[in-house]
Amino acid sequence: MTMQTENGRGRGGASWWRVLPWVGASALLAAPAVAMRMGADVQWTAFDFIVAGVMLAVPLTVFELAVRASGSLAYRAGVVVALGTAFLITWSNLAVGIIGSENDPINLMFFGVIFVAIAGAFLASFRARGLVIAMTAAAAAQAATAVVALAGGHFTFVIVGFFMTGWLMSAWLFRRAAEEEARSAPPEPL
Question: Cα-flanking dihedrals φ and ψ of residue 7, to 5°?
Fold first, then answer.
């Protein structure tokens, strides 16, 4: 006798692969607390734990919503890539700053790119076809950050290219999801 049902869900309604990221996030959040107790040179404040908790909880919650919104693997992968890109931008920006230090105000433009992606997603009503445009717009905004940084005397093409690749890969995955939706849609009546 097995706990799994036909759709891969256990008795609680959530399969192991949907619970595992939450367990992993909890372990990541606990790691600095354990390191502090063991005498490592880790000094986190309550604020640090709150920020880290929010940084982990928000993308995981959005992913949960995406899983419920679409059964398309391409759509879900597009969400994961977009969330991962936004997470890496936020993490690197808060930790050390992408340009100069984390306190350099020019780094705020990188958060503007994430805002472009979020605003575009809402404008697209989270539909795959619209998310293609939103993620492409985020990639274009990301390219603009390199131009602005270069005008300020900073060379950021490698890191910006990495982030642009994430946004463009997400757009490509959403395009695949939109094509899947179009193929599975019933024909329109004449």
Answer: -90, 10
**Residues contacting residue 127 through CB under 8 Å, at least 6 positions apart:** 178
23 within domain boundaries: no
- List phi, psi (to 5°) of 12: -80, -5
- What's the total number of domains in the chain? 1
- Does residue 42 form part of some domain? no
Q: What are the contacts of 22-28 at 24+ separation with CB within 8 A?
A: 22/60, 25/56, 25/57, 25/60, 28/52, 28/56
Domain holding 176, by residue range, is 71-181
Alpha carbons 73 and 172: distance in angstroms, whole number: 13
Per residue in 136-172, pLDDT (tens digit) is 999 999 999 999 888 888 888 899 999 999 999 999 9
| Averaged pLDDT for residues 79-102 | 89
Judge whether 51 lies within some domain: no
Q: Cα 90 vs. chain centroid, distance in angstroms?
A: 10
Q: Does the residue 60 lie in any domain? A: no
Given this model, what pLDDT does residue 78 score?
A: 95
pLDDT number for residue 2: 40
